[in-house]
Design brief:
This protein is mostly helical and 203 residues long. It has two domains: 118 residues, Orthogonal Bundle (Rna Polymerase Sigma Factor, Chain: A); 84 residues, Orthogonal Bundle (Arc Repressor Mutant, subunit A), CATH 1.10.10. It contains nine helices and no strands. The longest helix is centred in the first third of the chain and has 23 residues. Keywords: DNA-binding, Sigma factor, Transcription, Transcription regulation.
């Protein structure tokens, strides 16, 4: 009995230690075929990747499929991670590529923007500065009206809390371009919110 308890305790300690491992170390283990490391990395980041893709493709089923594809790519290409960015940035870069490819493939379809799925994020976003009970839906609707480039910037900066440098790495544009797009995205969003009767947005 004591041996069983000791084994279970050791197993729990092993799980806790694995969960405390950095993303970079997990990728090293994944590159060597570590399935436990893959499971932990997936558990840490699958929701973030799914929400990021969903905001791009506006299709829950497609987002689920693409999220699976992202982590399948991670399993296959973990050894190619060079460590020049955060692992989360690398994951979103893969996710963006997958989403854009999927959007190009369905570009011929006539999709009504008003019927696209809207997602409420539990994390702090621009909605945090507004009355959630009355204006969160207005904010999401206004964000949906932004140009794809501006919507992408808002998505990464506010919903995924990425820095200017990280956004540039994910999208593949200079930091100066990120700042310019962010300026105009915020201006356009503020104008849309004002028209909708909302006069403030957190800086």
């Amino acid at each position: 009995m004591l041996n069983v308890v000791a084994i279970n305790a050791a197993a729990r300690q092993g799980i806790i230690a694995a969960q405390a491992t950095s993303d970079e170390m997990l990728l090293e283990s994944i590159a060597d075929g570590g399935r436990t490391a893959m499971h932990i990395l997936y558990s840490r980041h699958n929701v973030r990747v799914y929400r990021f893709i969903l905001r791009m493709v506006r299709d829950a089923t497609m987002a689920e499929d693409l999220t699976s594809q992202v982590f399948l790519d991670v399993w296959r290409t973990a050894s190619q991670f060079e460590g020049r960015s955060q692992v989360s940035t690398w994951l979103l870069s893969i996710a963006r590529c997958k989403a854009l490819t999927a959007l190009r493939q369905r570009r011929h379809e006539d999709i009504d923007q008003e019927e696209r799925l809207e997602i409420a994020d539990e994390a702090d976003t621009p909605e945090a500065s507004l009355d959630r009970s009355t204006t969160s839906a207005i904010l999401r609707a206004c964000v949906a009206k932004l140009s794809p480039a501006h919507r992408e910037i808002i998505n990464l900066v506010y919903y995924h809390e990425k820095s200017v440098e990280e956004v540039g790495a994910i999208i593949g544009i200079p930091q100066s371009t990120v700042k310019t797009r962010m300026f105009y995205a915020r201006k356009q969003l503020a104008d849309l919110l004002k028209l909708a009767g909302v006069n403030s947005l957190a800086a």
